[in-house]
Structures are given as C-alpha cells and as structure tokens.
Specification:
The protein is of the alpha/beta class. Helices cover 37% and strands 15% of the residues. A seven-stranded parallel β-sheet has the order 3-2-1-4-5-6-10, with helices on both faces. The protein has a two-stranded parallel sheet with strand order 7-9. Strands 8-11 form a two-stranded antiparallel sheet. The structure holds NADP nicotinamide-adenine-dinucleotide phosphate. NADP nicotinamide-adenine-dinucleotide phosphate binds next to helix 1 and strand 5.
C-alpha cells in the first residue's frame, strides 16, 4: 500500500472531524483519526494537544492531515485566552510544522471570524481584522501555517449539523406551545456539515495550497431562521418573540454584521457554488428537501 495516500484527521471525535473521518472511510480512503481518549476506539490514535509535544506519537508518511481539533466556543477563548491559545495556536502550529516536515500536506480549519464582519464576501486576500480572541487565535495560526510549504487554510462560516442544538430547542418549545426568543441582531451564512466535509475532502485530495473560503450565498438573521421554523410547524405568530444578542449580554464583536465569504476559489477549482442559505438551515431543522 502507498502510505503517502494515507490521511489523518486530528480531532476525529469532534463534529466536523468525526463527519470527515466517516466520509473519507466510506470513500475508501486509507484514513486514521486522533482523539483525546487515553484508550481510543479502533482506527483512532491518542493525541492531546496540551501534552508535551515530545509525547505525541504520530504515524509516518501521512499524505494529508486535517487539523480539526481546537477550542471553538468564543466565550471559552475570551475567558481563557492563555489556555485556549496554547491549543488553538501554539500546539496546533507545532503539530502542523511537525507534519509538514515529514512531507505531509496540512489542511487547517479556520473561521470567518478572522474578519471583523464589517464587509460582506471578504476575499481570501483581504487583510484579516479579527475582533474576538477566537478570531485572533485563528488569524495567528493561519499566518504560521500558511508559511509552510504545503498547507491549505479553509475559512468556514458557520457549519450546521443535523440536530443543531439551538434548532432542536426551538422546535421543542414551539411544539409545546411555548415562546422562543431568537436574536434579531445576529446573522449567519451557514453551510451544512456535509458540504463542509465535501470541500475539505476535495482540498485534501487535490493538495493545493493557500486559502479557501466557505459560506452560504448570503446571511440570514437568527430570527429569520426561527420564523421559517415557526411557519413550517404552524406555530402561532405570538410564539415568536425576537430579542437582541446585545440585551442577552453578548458582546458586539461576537455579532458581526456580515459572515459571508468570497468562495470564488471553490467555484473556479472544484465547480462548487456557495449553497443557498436555507439548504443548511432546513437540513439542521430536519426538513427534507
Ligand atoms: N463548527 C463550526 O461552525 C465551525 C466554523 C468555523 C470554524 N470551525 C473550526 O473547525 C474546527 C472543528 O470544529 P468543530 O465544530 O468540529 O468543533 P468540535 O466539535 O468542538 O470539535 C473539536 C475537537 O477538538 C478536540 N480538542 C479540543 N481540545 C483538544 C486538545 N487539547 N487536544 C486534542 N484535541 C482537542 C475536541 O476533543 P473533545 O471532543 O474530546 O473535547 C473535539 O474532538 C475547529 O477548529 C473550529 O474552530 C468550526
């Protein structure tokens, strides 16, 4: 077997990493995952980014490694900038460097929050302008990883999986005749997790370096998504009681006006169009097309 065709998914028990591992396995790719469990399940290796790097046991001759591990909640990054930077920047970059030194092509998952959200459809070459600690960490890791000879950075807007917890909470409340309070001042341009892993698999297979960006074709406010759900469920209009993220204590930097990205490179290289915004949301609500 040509071991250079082997792939490695770092963070294979996470939402995106787990879906990617399943997808690559189903496609017949020779792939292994890593997880934090001391006794990992079959097909997984133990890897804890807070461990001393000399303790990391990495397989040789990996063709593509997908860096899907990290601490994503913005509040966690805000409250513990030192601890989260260790994982999201220092150790992630060290891991990327070690893999690249072995000839591995590295795919790093970044975020639309490397931008401040004042402009829609930022291009991949626009200057980064993060306003949150999470966004700053992603921007710093990107800069280091892009200096490696063989690496791609994939900036993702929101990625929605089926059984999206907030969507489920809204559904349960609406079905029980209760009110929901979606934010009118927070937007998203989500893609489905299937679309996101499709993009990652294509980039990892093509091994083309540089920045890729992934978002839906436009932003919608959370209140619009909730209204669509309420309409589909036949809920009473009085159950939809919008509120604002600002009044819920969410800091302005966490509610950018725009989260869309210029995804032109996906169209040019892989023929992938930015999906319509309702595709991911309907799927996350469990509505079939
Ligand atoms: N989901 C989105 O909407 C979205 C959007 C933009 C960018 N991204 C980025 O995409 C990546 C994957 O996101 P996700 O939604 O799949 O996140 P997730 O579900 O939270 O998965 C993150 C994974 O990282 C692992 N991890 C956390 N700390 C670690 C450590 N110290 N050592 C080793 N592994 C560690 C977690 O392990 P445990 O499960 O054991 O905690 C988990 O498996 C992240 O970098 C995220 O910032 C996600």
């Amino acid at each position: 077997m040509n071991r250079r065709n082997r792939s490695l998914v770092i963070g294979a028990e996470g939402s995106i990493g787990g879906t990617l591992l399943t997808r690559l396995t189903r496609e017949g790719v020779d792939v292994q995952g890593t997880c934090r469990a001391k006794f990992p399940p079959a097909g997984c290796l133990h890897l804890e980014l807070t461990d001393e790097p000399r303790l990391w046991l990495l397989p040789d001759s990996i063709g593509t490694a997908y860096l899907c591990a990290g601490i994503s909640p913005q509040e966690a990054c805000r409250q513990d900038p030192y601890g989260t930077r260790l994982v999201n920047v220092l150790r992630t970059v060290e891991l990327a460097k070690r893999l690249a030194a072995n000839g591995t092509f590295v795919v790093f998952l970044s975020s639309s929050l490397v931008f401040d959200g004042s402009t829609a459809y930022c291009g991949p070459l626009c200057s980064v302008s993060p306003k949150t600690e999470y966004g700053r960490q992603k921007a710093e890791a990107e800069r280091e990883i892009l200096s490696l000879p063989r690496a791609a950075v994939v900036r993702l807007a929101k990625v929605l999986a089926p059984h999206w917890p907030l969507g489920r909470k809204w559904q349960e409340a609406l079905r029980a005749g209760q009110a929901i309070h979606p934010f009118s001042d927070m937007v998203m341009a989500p893609v489905s997790i299937d679309f996101a892993v499709d993009v990652l698999a294509k980039i990892g297979c093509a091994r083309r370096a540089g920045i890729y960006q992934v978002s839906a074709d436009r932003d919608v406010a959370y209140v619009e998504a909730a209204a669509r759900l309420a309409g589909r469920l036949g809920a009473s209009p009085s159950q939809l009681q919008p509120t604002t993220a600002a009044s819920a204590g969410i800091l302005p930097e966490s509610t950018p006006c725009h989260t869309t990205l210029d995804a032109g490179r996906l169209r040019a290289e892989f023929g992938l169009e930015p999906p319509g915004v309702w595709e991911a949301i309907d799927c996350a609500f469990g509505f079939t097309p």
